[in-house]
Fold:
Amino acid sequence: MEIVNVNKENFKEEVINSQIPVLADFNADWCGPCRMLRPVLDELASEHNDFKIVSINVDDEDELAREYFVSSIPCLVLFKNGEEVNRSVGLKPKDEIESMLGGN
Structure:
């Protein structure tokens, strides 16, 4: 699967109503660690079809960032059945992100 860019207009459809778990990457273009994390997320997205990864630019979608209390980036938020079940802040290696996803 490819990473889906999400905004407030498609957030409900892509994240809240998703039938599979969703890993939301809250990021910004100017954020060095965010740019370093992106290839890892691209790799995970191409290797798995049991969850979806979405990208949310906090500069463009500050309303979503506030709603989900994102104060530091990169911030990964795992949603299952429309509810937040896990969160990770900062640059993490691939294996830590995979363990965050659990038995997905």
